[in-house]
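Holo prediction — 5,6-dihydrouridine-5'-monophosphate.
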Amino acid sequence: MEFNPEKHPHRRYNSLTGEWILVSPHRTMRPWHGHKESSSERPRLTYDPECYLCPNNKRANGMVNPPYNSVFVFVNDYSALLPELPTVGQSADNLFINQPVQGECRVICFSPRHDLTLPEMDVKDIEKVINVWSEQLSELGSKYRWVQIFENKGAIMGCSNPHPHGQIWASNFLPKIPEQEDLMQREYLKNYSQPLLLEYVRREIGSKIRIIELNEHWIAVVPYWAVWPFEVLLIPLAHRQRLTDLTDAERSSLAGILKKLLIRYDNLFETSFPYSMGWHGAPTDDRDYSHWQLHAHFYPPLLRSATVKKFMVGYEMLAEPQRDLTPELAAKRLVELSPVHYKERQKPGK
Ligand code: H2U
Ligand code: ZN
């Protein structure tokens, strides 16, 4: 019998992190059970007097938000990292090891409108979010080695508030995942004389089977090594190390592809699609990072419906991640969806 990756259990290697994942495609020979639950969503208010992120409202620590009308950034009232603490004093023990850290955490409101999400915002307004991400990276990156820009979306992801917002955590240390990606990309450039993700993009464009969206400057694919059912990797086509390196044209086409990708996500189960997403660019110290290629990861937990999520338990916790649906099939499902947001289609007269 010949090995068929569409049918036979196999492992795939994540070339970006150096981790393996078990793929069990034979388990999806069952019919597709995806179903929609749009009826459970109620329209939201444009302004919610109870929301701690809406303009003019009071936050938990008593501070009042300004009457902002675009993107608004504030220092997280419950920051996980704090600036100006001792940086020396690392333990010398060989078992009980710790390290003092410094950092800053901020919250970024994408819009003053309480009822919107990124895919429902105008491309011009998404572009403003991208510009603020870049400004924040520039400012915090001048002080800290790693700036993690991310969005937690949906209650299922532990997000506390539907008001469209993300977070920014800056630290004087390189956290584990970007450290692995740094190592893998550095090795790849050394061995093959080109950046890993640029070669990856070239190969994905050649094969086409995992592409969700492609425009003049960006590609969105379900990566070959995806762990989450509908995981996506978003990468610029040109060699860019950080968000701050993007041209104006690349920023506006990023806004366009983000909107298109997130509309597909929402349309999959006709629900506001939950996920954690975030940017990985070169660390912001002054070492040589020519091996780095900027990219964003999207990790959505949903598997078969607006409520059925993939659990990372059992084998995943104890051995390694596992998936049934192949990344190729996941890509096919996303590509087959309407490019028009389901809420637009549901409006009277459409
Ligand atoms: P989530 O996106 O995970 O819900 O996080 C929202 C953040 O907002 C969270 O980190 C902060 C929380 O600390 N926050 C404030 O800074 N002020 C508040 O008044 C409430 C929440
Ligand atoms: Zn709000």
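READOUT: The pocket of zinc ion (ligand 2) is lined by residues 48, 51, 53-54, 114, 163 (CB under 6 Å).
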